[in-house]
Amino acid sequence: MSTKKIAIIGGGNLGSAIAQGLLKSGFTQAQDIIITKRNTGTLSHLQELGVTIEKDNAKAITQSEIILVALKPYNVKEVLQGLKSAFDPKRHVLISVVTGVSMNELEQIVGEGMAVVRAMPNTAIAIQESMTCICHKNVSEEQVTWIMKMFDQLGATVSIDEKLMDAATVLGACGIAYALRFIRANIQGGIEIGFDVRTANLIAAQTVKGAAELLIREKRHPEEEIDKVTTPKGCTIAGLNEMEHQGFSSSLIKGITVSYNKIVKG
Ligand SMILES: NC(=O)C1=CN([C@@H]2O[C@H](COP(=O)(O)OP(=O)(O)OC[C@H]3O[C@@H](n4cnc5c(N)ncnc54)[C@H](OP(=O)(O)O)[C@@H]3O)[C@@H](O)[C@H]2O)C=CC1
Ligand SMILES: O=C(O)[C@@H]1CCC=N1
After folding, report:
1. I need a surface site. Which of 68, 89, 233, 240 has the fewest CB within 10 A?
2. Do residues 63 and 5 lie in contact, with contact meaning Cβ atoms separated by under 8 Å?
3. Residue 1 domain-assigned?
4. What number does the ligand 2 atom closest to the CA of 262 have?
């Protein structure tokens, strides 16, 4: 358990999910989390758990050591500029989960020499099942150890070069939406061939979980596992080939590159 106080600036979808994951993990106690947003009404579920809800960002920052910024990319610079005087490079570590804003840009806004971390988690962080990619600047060894320990409580963590952060955003953070859409399509198909929606949901989700676990636990390549399922002249290969004729893999690869270009080119 950590006693460092964490301020989450921007308690929206991801900011709240991080607070939930931190509480579930036991890494941080509710009294050591402050979460901010302007319309605080949506944070009552966290308030009930003992988290401090705050409208005043500067107050949250001065009361904390770890400042986790989960604002939208379009207002993060303006909001942080207004908070510059609240930041203390000797005391604070700034962790940004904001898409497309570099560590240099963040450092320029909050102050030269500030310990800056970029982390790219996904919304499964709420249940400690995130994939989080991390890079950092001006961060001491002790701070890195602490940060990795925190994110390790919230799922899997990998350190990457900052130049891969946009790619990490697409594959890991957007990726959860792509995976969910895949599951939804399976549910729709499952209903068409006879299942009620709840049963189809369970079968589709557990099947995807099992497939993922085979890759994660056994460190296998997908095609190695697919080969075990595709009986010659069987129904799996017939379905798979039809999916490929319809552009299944191609549509995913194209979607991923469009998503990436949206971050890089705007
Ligand atoms: N959602 C996701 O799955 C992921 C998102 N990200 C990144 O995380 C960031 C947040 O995304 P997401 O949570 O989806 O966005 P949200 O819009 O849900 O959250 C942003 C929050 O910031 C609050 N906010 C706006 N202005 C201020 C302010 N001046 N002070 C304090 N809070 C403020 C807003 O609430 P209010 O208007 O009430 O103030 C809002 O709830 C983005 O940069 C996104 O790119 C990264 C990975 C995954
Ligand atoms: O869609 C978005 O822009 C954000 C970034 C990653 C997930 N959601």
Report:
1. 233
2. yes
3. no
4. 3
